[in-house]
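Minutes, structural biology subgroup

Action item carried over from last meeting: produce the C-alpha cell record for FAD-binding protein (Parasphingopyxis marina). EB confirmed the sequence was re-checked against the source entry. Recorded below for completeness.
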Amino acid sequence: MRDILPADGVVDDAAGLRSYESDGLTAYRQVPLVAVLPETTAQVAAILRWCHARGVKVVPRGSGTSLSGGALPLADGVLLVLSKMRAILDIDYANRVAVLQPGIANLAVTQAVEAEGFYYAPDPSSQIICSIGGNVAENSGGVHCLKYGITTNNVLGVELVLMDGETVRLGGTLLEQQGLDLLGLIVGSEGLLGIVTEVTVRILPKPQTARALLLGFATIEHASQFVADVISGGIIPAGMEMMDRPAIHAAEAFVGRGYPLDVEALVIAELDGPAVECQHLVDEVAAIAGRNHAVSTRVSHSEEERLSFWAGRKAAFPAVGRLAPDYYCMDGTIPRHRLAEVLQRIAALSSEYGLGVANVFHAGDGNLHPLILYDANRPGELERAEEFGADILRLCVEVGGVLTGEHGVGVEKRDLMPVMFTQTDLDHQQRVKCAFDPELLLNPGKVFPTLRRCAELGRVHVHGGRLAFPDIPRF
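Output recorded by EB:
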C-alpha cells in the first residue's frame, strides 16, 4: 500500500485503526487489517488491482455514518476510505448538474451552489457529514425526498472501479441513458459491486417560496389519517415528517423551538413553489388537518420560522440520545395507511421487551425510524434491543412494507433477508454480485445471509464444452 499511496494515506498503527473500527452502528466493532486513504481514481484502481491479484478483501467506507454496519471493517481486509476524495470537479448550471468526488459531504454540495440559487435535494439528517459516495451506496433519503426523490432519482452518472481495477462509466449528464440501467443497479448496492470514485448529480433551482406547518394531534390515529388524506388528496408536500410524544419532548428539550408538549403526535408538513400556489396548498393542508382533529396548528411566516420548525426534527436523533445511554435506530418502510396500526404494535412490543422507544419518521413515504432505548452496560439489553428491532422489521414486511427505506441492509438486516425474499430471489441477487465480483472480495459478509461461492450458483466457466478438472469435487 505504501508503494501506491503517500505515507499519510496508509494507517496501520493500533491507535489510528481504532478510529475506523465501526460505523454508525456502533454495537458492532472490528479493527481493520489496514486502512488506506486514496486521493485519485488511479490510486483506487491500483489498490483494487493489487488486492484482486492476491485475493485480499476490501471494504469501502465514506464518512462512516452508515446505520446498518455497511462499512464495518474486516480483520483480514483492507478498509478503503474515500474521505480524502472530496473535490467538486465541475458545476454546470445551464444543464443543472454537478460532478463530485465521493467523499464530499452532502450539505457541502448545496453550500457550493446556493449562491446561484440552486441546491441538492436529498437531505439525510446526517447531511452535515455523510458523504455523497455513502449516499449512493445506501440510496439515502431525507426529509425533502417525498417530492424530489431519493438518491437514485438525483444521480445521473458514476465512475466505478471494479474489483480487478478496471474503471467504467455508467450514465452521464443526461436524464435518459442508452442501454441497460446499470446505474440503477449501482445506486443502493452497498459497496458490493464496485467502488464509486465520481458522481454526477442533479442540482435544482430553489423554490420561490417554502412554508411549513407545525401540526399537533391528540392521537397517533388522527395524525396518520391526516398524512394519508394529504397524499390521497393529490398534494405532494416537499416533506412531511412525524414524531411521537417521547421524540417531541426530547427534541423540544434539546432545541427549544416551541413544540407543543401536550400532543401524542407532531407532523411537520412543508409546501413549496410559486407564492400563490404555496399559499393555496398551505390552506388546503390546514383544512385537512382540521378535519382530522388537529389540536395545534402553526404556519411559518418567515424563513427563520420555517427553519425553526425543522430544527427539532433535524436534531431528533441526538436529542433522543439524551433519554438513554444507548439507542438502536431502526429503518423500515410500510404502506402509509398502516401507520397507526404499526405504531400501536410497536408500542405493544415495547412493553413486551421492557425497552422504551421513540418514533421519528418520514410519514409521507412511510419510512419509519423507531429509536429503541437501552443500556449496553446492562447484561442482555443489547440482545433484547436487537430482537425488538428484528420484530419491528418483520412487522414492516408483514403489513406489506420492506426491510429498509434508506439505511441499507449491511450486517444489521442481513439475516432478515429471507423474511422478505425467497431463496430464488436471493440467488439471483447474488448472481449479480458474481457478475461484478466473481471472487467475492468486495465488502463480503454484508447483505446476503448465506455467502456462497459463485460456482455454487452455477457460475462455472466451461471451455470447449468440457468442464475443467472434472475429477475435482465441486462444493
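Discussion: DSSP finds 15 helices and 21 strands in the chain.
Next step: EB to file the record with the rest of the batch.
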